[in-house]
Amino acid sequence: MARKRNIPAACVLGLPVLAVGVLVLGGCQRSLFSDSADRTPFDRYDRIQNQYAVPFVYDEYGTRVPNLRARLLPRD
Questions:
Q1: Confidence band (pLDDT; 50, 70, 90) for 15?
Q2: Is the pTM of this model over 0.90?
Q3: d(Cα 5, Cα 29) in Å, to the nearest integer?
């Protein structure tokens, strides 16, 4: 008759907690692109034509928000 191995509860509960911790800490890295880097060829073209609009602005409360109005306006 084969004996059944008892796995401690700490191991059973610790493995998922450890896996979630590794995944969460993996998200705390620097951004892949810098804020000044061109992300698309269109950004580069707008810079050359002197029509580049900054991607983010700060509102009246100091919160960083996307600059949608300036970026979606028709170009000259």
A1: confident
A2: no
A3: 40
